[in-house]
UniProtKB/TrEMBL annotation, chain A:
Domain NLE, chain residue ranges per copy: 18-74
Entry-linked InterPro entries: NLE, WD40/YVTN_repeat-like_dom_sf, WD40_G-protein_beta-like, WD40_PAC1, WD40_repeat_CS, WD40_repeat_dom_sf, WD40_rpt
Full protein name: Notchless protein homolog 1
Protein origin, superkingdom: Eukaryota
GO cellular component: nucleolus
Annotated source species: Oncorhynchus tshawytscha
Automatic annotation (TrEMBL), chain B:
Swiss-Prot/TrEMBL keywords: Nucleus, Ribonucleoprotein, Ribosome biogenesis, rRNA processing
Subunit structure: Component of the pre-66S ribosomal particle.
Keyword Phosphoprotein (UniProt): no
Residue spans of biased composition, Basic residues class: 35-55
Name of the coding gene: NSA2
Organism taxonomic ancestry: Eukaryota, Metazoa, Chordata, Craniata, Vertebrata
This protein's name: Ribosome biogenesis protein NSA2 homolog
Organism: Oncorhynchus tshawytscha
Role of this protein: Involved in the biogenesis of the 60S ribosomal subunit. May play a part in the quality control of pre-60S particles.
Length: 485, 249
């Protein structure tokens, strides 16, 4: 505090301003503070950290919650045209303490699949990598040597979707012949029976979150036949069938509050109670197929009890009893969720996105327009502040995760953008496109960070490992590429 | 070998033996035994010929039996999974119209590296001067015949300016100057109208290449930047070589 007082004494002839620090929810921190107009973000950070009296964390500051303080407060004030007489609210946002480094080179091109790679995913700790392909196999890859580890055969048609359980011990894969298989990543063997029941292909699989059930026993699957089934993996049978949609269900997400969200080609989104399968709400508003859903807590539900900040060079399995894991996962979930309930974003063929508060309201919070072609994927950033939408109009748009306000457009691809993936610290994002390149974008500057060419054909699947070290991409040229720093 | 129908006539008049059917049946059933006896006991050339004939007969019989057997059982269609795997988000959509562009582009590039202007060309008829160039008579008495006018479609670049009329030997009429070409992608069956960048080679004569005359089989470079193709190295492709195959006379 002595240093701060010195600082304010020295520049007594400069214009000063009264600011009130506020957190994201609007709660004021301390009392209004008198600062010179030329103050920079680092000095603001010092002041704020002193007020917070906790471990110093990197912070970002937004004047009145809108304009970010990049160079100095003066620039922001001028840009906003705010009068300097009243107390100015400055919102502080803690950024991730750890920093993920951008990937720059392709360390290996994993061949093995005999048909196009359609889905690829890292396990929640980043230890295992699995990929599903059109040759009906699911392959597990060893990341330390970047070589194939297991080839799991069991499906009879293209493996359309794969999903890791939040504890990283099981992988569920759904195929075009409407079968779901559970695999053990350590041995590559199938666990339990093949789950049959759907009549048409599986479009999405979502596990029950770890903090609701640390055994990772239940999963929900959506299919083109319009039904959503909740399966018990241990007994190998279908617990519940949720019918209601009249056309193909394109996406199902199991929320952290015990609600299931499903989107469908019949232009509606339905909210169900996971416990008894009762439909709570139907969210209407879209004018065409709803392609994709994203929950604000997606990333934290995916990683479960694993904290990316604690990642080590060699990813480890999650250890601990069920109670410990559940406790950790619950803590992480509550931290990310905050006070407000989960937010849901849906992207559709009608070129718009809707931001919903599905647990409470039937009406959307905001309609996000701007794209000129259908939206293929939406994804919240891990800290839930930003939202990225990848569209067939070759651009990616970034929106504010809370209000839905449009922030920026990332252009660079020359063909449809298929998938995006955020890095664990929400500062970088990688996108894979039909033009066979991947691009890493720096969100802070809004510019292209690295261009990653190398695939010979369209890139169908992209994923960034939760420990931030690797990016995997798989595509039509049948090979899987791993990118590292 | 009866020469007349007296056997039939006798049968018609007097009928057959009372046990005729019985004897016929028994004789036929003995046939198998007699045949096998013959086959075992025959020797010499006769045997060789007989065995050869019998062998081919047996093969034929086996084939027909197998055929009959196959028809009885219903075979499930091939379990091979179809080609063209796409992720779930592309399943209900029409096949990508640019599906094959990239792979073809790579093949094109490889071909380019191999032999510069090698494009699959049908053998073209070399066109003589009298076809492509027309003699223009000049002079007070229309006796001088050193000027030529191109009678085929040609391409002149953007920065083309005519030479002074007194010195210009080859005239390329404005009506025959084309800037754009209809380019058809053979796999996609889609045609694009793309601006021409230049004439690479005219198979009839290097003179036509320098003049920019476009006849059948001419290799032309077109601007494909609007198609949005990308190389494996990440660069955007802006030019492509293709031959003129049709609608040029």
């Amino acid at each position: 505090s002595a240093a701060l007082i010195d600082m304010s004494m020295m520049s007594s002839d400069v214009e000063r301003l009264l600011i009130q620090f506020q957190d994201e929810a609007g709660e004021p921190l301390g009392s209004p503070f008198d600062v010179p107009l030329d103050i920079t973000p680092d000095k603001l950070q010092l002041v704020c950290n002193a007020l917070l009296q906790k471990e110093p964390v990197p912070l970002a500051f937004f004047v009145r919650g809108e304009a970010e303080v990049v160079e100095s407060l003066r620039v922001c004030v001028k840009a906003l045209g705010v009068e300097t007489e009243a107390v100015l609210p400055v919102v502080y946002q803690p950024q991730a303490v750890f920093r993920v480094r951008a990937v720059a080179r392709c360390t290996s091109s994993l061949q093995g699949h005999t048909e196009a790679v359609i889905s690829a995913a890292f396990s929640p700790t980043g230890k295992y990598l699995a990929s599903g392909s059109g040759d009906t196999t699911v392959r597990f890859w060893d990341l330390t040597t970047e070589t194939p580890q297991h080839t799991s055969r069991g499906h009879s048609h293209w493996v359309l979707t794969i999903s890791w359980s939040p504890d990283g011990r099981k992988l569920a894969s759904g195929c075009k012949n409407s079968q779901i298989c559970i695999w053990d990543p350590v041995t590559g063997q199938q666990m339990g029976k093949t789950l049959t029941g759907h009549t048409k292909w599986i479009t999405w699989i979502s596990w029950e979150p770890l903090h609701l059930n640390p055994e990772c026993r239940y999963l929900a699957s959506s299919s083109k036949d319009g039904a959503v089934r909740v399966w018990d993996v241990v007994l190998g049978r279908c617990e519940r069938i949720l019918t209601g949609h009249t056309q193909s269900v394109t996406c199902v997400k199991w929320g952290g509050d015990g609600l299931l969200y499903t989107s469908s080609q019949d232009r509606t989104i339905k909210v169900w109670r996971a416990k008894d399968g009762v439909q709570c709400r139907t969210l209407q508003g879209h004018a065409h197929w709803v392609n994709t859903l994203a929950l604000s807590t997606d990333y934290v539900l995916r990683t479960g009890a694993f904290e990316p900040a604690d990642a080590t060079i060699n990813p480890q399995d999650q250890t601990g009893t069920f109670e410990e894991l559940k406790e950790k996962a619950l803590q992480r979930y509550n931290k990310v969720r905050g006070e407000a309930p989960e937010r849901l974003v849906s992207g559709s063929d009608d070129f718009t996105l809707f931001l919903w508060n599905p647990a409470e309201d039937k009406k959307p919070l905001a309609r996000l327009t701007g794209h000129s072609a259908l939206i293929n994927e939406v994804l919240f950033s891990p800290d839930t502040r930003l939202l990225a939408s990848a569209s067939f109009d070759k651009s990616i748009k970034i929106w504010d995760g809370r209000t839905g306000k449009y922030l920026q457009s990332l252009r660079g691809h020359v063909a449809a953008v298929y998938q995006v993936a955020w890095s664990a610290d929400s500062r970088l994002m990688v996108s894979g496109s039909s033009d066979s390149t991947l691009k890493v974008w720096d969100i802070k500057t809004g510019k292209l960070h690295t261009d990653l060419p190398g695939h010979a054909d369209e890139v169908f699947a992209v994923d960034w490992s939760p420990d931030g070290q690797r990016v995997v991409s798989g595509g039509k040229d049948k090979c899987l590429r791993i990118w590292r720093r | 070998m009866p020469q007349n129908e007296h056997i039939e006539l006798h049968r018609k008049r007097h009928g057959q033996r009372l046990d005729h059917q019985e004897r016929k049946r028994k004789k036929e059933s003995r046939e198998a035994h007699e045949r096998s006896h013959k086959a075992r006991k025959m020797i010499g050339l006769k045997a060789k010929l007989y065995h050869k004939q019998r062998h081919s007969e047996k093969i034929q019989m086996k084939k027909t039996l197998k055929m009959h057997e196959q028809r009885k059982t219903k075979q499930k269609n091939d379990d091979k999974t179809p080609e063209g795997a796409v992720p779930a988000y592309l399943l209900d959509r029409e096949g990508q119209s640019r599906a094959k562009i990239l792979s073809n582009m790579i093949k094109q590039k490889r071909k380019e590296k191999a032999g510069k202007w090698e494009v699959p060309l049908p053998k073209v008829r070399a066109q003589g001067e009298t076809e492509v160039l027309k003699v223009i008579r000049t002079g007070k008495r229309q006796k001088k015949a050193w000027k030529r006018m191109v009678t085929k479609v040609c391409f002149v670049g953007d920065n083309f300016t005519r030479k002074p009329p007194k010195y210009e030997r080859f005239i390329r009429p404005m009506g025959l100057r084309f800037k754009k070409a209809h380019v058809t992608h053979p796999e996609l069956k889609a045609t694009f109208c793309l601006p021409i960048l230049g004439v690479k080679k005219n198979p009839s004569s290097p003179l036509y290449t320098t003049l920019g005359v476009i006849t059948k089989g001419t290799v032309v470079e077109v601007n494909v930047s609007e198609l949005g193709l990308v190389t494996q190295g990440g660069k955007v492709i802006w030019g492509e070589i293709s031959p003129i195959l049709s609608n040029v006379y």
